[in-house]
Amino acid sequence: MAAEGDRVLSRKKLDELVKQVTGGGHGDGPSLTPEVEESMLTVADTFVDQVLNAACKIAKERGSKSLEIRDIQLTLERGYNIRIPGYASDEIRTVRKIQPSNAWIAKMSAVQAAKVTGGKNQE
Fold first, then answer.
1. Is the pLDDT of residue 21 over 60?
2. pTM of the prediction?
3. What residue ranges define each of the domains in the chain, with the CATH number in brackets?
């Protein structure tokens, strides 16, 4: 088990977050079991590690020796679809191109073929 100082999120902050999300009052609201608490703390640590590792790779690809906020923003936007409000990310606009399914492509081809062949009036 890791010490409190080694964690990204403290048990106290996690408890406050649970109370805030669940609307629990002071002390009598829902709480997490120790196993779930430990699991959530591990998930938070893993998430931060993954984001920072990916952001460092992006910074390295840019040829920089220092990590910048835009590296973290890019990682969060592209990898997790998370946008942080308050930070200008106009220069980092990421667009995900949607790949149509084969069924959709076949339907659209059939529609186009019907337009070409079936659109003429036959008497």
1. yes
2. 0.62
3. 4-118 (1.10.20.10)
